[in-house]
Q: What sequence folds into this?
């Protein structure tokens, strides 16, 4: 199992996108103010500084799209819990094909994994309870490599009557994935390929799996921003796509309706009710979302879809910005052309970028030494800096990390992001032992003659890692921090020494 910490595209033409077959046009043609979209982008760039991509659809047309470099239109992005809405869709398709029913008892699918004496509440738990996050649990069942996840889930206490108690439960979504696999003989990823991904033009989606080979369900799906938008458009169109009913309308309506209560705060988009792995929102909208700001927002009243990927901690702030800045830009009918505002928006979207590392100093040469680090959670054994590679105008220096006895080199751009791939190595920003290959973009700069700071953007994920090296003779103070993380973002402080 892998846990990992966009070049810019903006099109206002009448062309067709290769993936979802969505036409492009100016915002005004579909009744949206370019100036209003501009206000949203500027506010997001200034006040949030964590968006990775943005795409706005109305009446089935792409009106605005942009990626904060080094994020780009072609790269997939980790969806985290936005994956749940796709798993729910797999359940809906399996129900439509008669493979299972939302009224089926969960234990029906896993008799060999059931406790010897299952409780009455566990016996009564149904597929619909999993869909509504109302399993009856007081806490979420764990997912570890030590025990099969299905067995752990079924062994977990169920103190409440299923259907009566809301608890956000990623393990419950995993059970939906496991049920689909039991009922169809395919993983959710395999099952959705001909039924959802291929019709929508979603190419090469990936989905992490459990140690038992089951799609994680509640997380782990990676697709492009436009794929998210197409998924939202499918639901906006009540399951219909290019003249075909891919998903029953009744399922779309049930999945996006308020199936259970999840709070009473009128100002929170996490208290407006919950459907079948979809959240209800304010302003009559609904959404799928994932950790650190992955959104698929559907606005039926405006006939619009908003897709956003991010790397942030305050997810409500993004939705507040949508309601405050973007929603007022919608009008009931087409607007007169506004070439000036449209061109300004186009240029803004083309120039979006994650801020690069700043620094004015330029030492002649960094210490040509390898600094051995103490044991640490990131499993980095040593670091060094090759400033000889910084003789070009594009590269400030090359950061070298020793992991598992092998050196991995990351070229850091000078005032720009340089894209590359880390070879078959552990994920540097992650404490995971999993061996993977991953793309990264890096930049770096000297803040003084002894301090070099590198920013590493793992641009298929929300994670941006900052590494600061302060050299002093035979020692280096190494600080490693991360923009977001489930375990917090406190920097890891290490002191390396030459040997």
A:
């Amino acid at each position: 199992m892998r846990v990992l910490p966009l070049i810019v595209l903006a099109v206002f033409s009448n062309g067709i996108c290769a993936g979802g077959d969505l036409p492009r046009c100016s915002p005004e043609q579909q009744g949206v103010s370019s100036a209003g979209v501009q206000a949203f982008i500027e506010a997001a760039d200034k006040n949030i500084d964590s968006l990775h991509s943005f795409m706005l659809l109305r009446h089935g047309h792409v009106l605005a799209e942009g990626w904060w470099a080094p994020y780009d239109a072609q790269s997939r992005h980790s969806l985290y819990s936005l994956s749940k809405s796709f798993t729910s869709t797999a359940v809906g398709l399996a129900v439509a094909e008669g493979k299972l029913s939302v009224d089926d008892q969960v234990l029906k699918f896993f008799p060999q994994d059931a406790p010897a004496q299952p409780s009455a509440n566990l016996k009564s738990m149904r597929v619909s309870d999993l869909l509504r996050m109302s399993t009856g649990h007081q806490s979420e069942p764990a997912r570890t490599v030590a025990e099969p996840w299905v067995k752990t889930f079924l062994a977990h206490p169920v103190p409440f009557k299923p259907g009566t108690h809301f608890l956000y439960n990623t393990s419950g979504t995993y059970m939906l994935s496991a049920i689909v696999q039991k009922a169809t003989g395919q993983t959710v990823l395999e099952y959705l390929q001909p039924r959802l991904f291929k019709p929508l033009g979603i190419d090469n989606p990936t989905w992490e799996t459990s140690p038992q080979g089951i799609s994680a369900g509640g997380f782990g799906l990676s697709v492009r921003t436009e794929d998210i938008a197409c998924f939202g458009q499918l639901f906006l169109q009540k399951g219909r796509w290019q003249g075909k009913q891919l998903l029953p309308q009744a399922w779309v309506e049930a999945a996006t309706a308020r199936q259970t209560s999840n709070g009473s705060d009128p100002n929170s988009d996490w208290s407006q009710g919950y459907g079948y792995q979809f959240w209800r929102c304010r302003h009559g909208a609904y959404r799928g979302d994932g950790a650190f700001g992955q959104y698929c927002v559907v606005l039926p009243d405006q006939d619009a879809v908003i897709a956003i990927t991010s790397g942030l901690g305050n997810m409500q702030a993004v939705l507040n910005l949508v309601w405050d800045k973007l929603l007022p830009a919608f009008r009931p009918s087409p607007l007169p052309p506004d070439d000036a505002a449209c061109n300004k928006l186009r240029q803004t979207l083309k120039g979006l970028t994650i801020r690069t590392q700043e620094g004015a100093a330029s030492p002649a040469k960094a210490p040509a030494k390898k600094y051995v680090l103490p044991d640490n959670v990131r499993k980095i054994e040593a670091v060094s800096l090759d400033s000889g590679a910084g003789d070009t105008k594009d590269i400030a220096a090359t950061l070298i990390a020793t992991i598992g006895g092998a050196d991995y080199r990351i070229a850091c751009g000078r005032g720009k992001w340089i894209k590359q791939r880390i070879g078959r190595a552990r994920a540097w920003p992650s404490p995971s032992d999993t061996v993977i290959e991953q793309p990264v973009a890096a930049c770096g700069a000297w803040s003084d003659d002894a301090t070099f700071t590198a920013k590493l953007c793992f641009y298929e994920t929300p994670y941006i890692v900052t590494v600061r090296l302060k050299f002093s003779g035979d020692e280096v103070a190494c600080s490693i921090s991360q923009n977001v993380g489930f375990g917090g973002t406190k920097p890891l402080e290490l002191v390396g020494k030459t040997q």
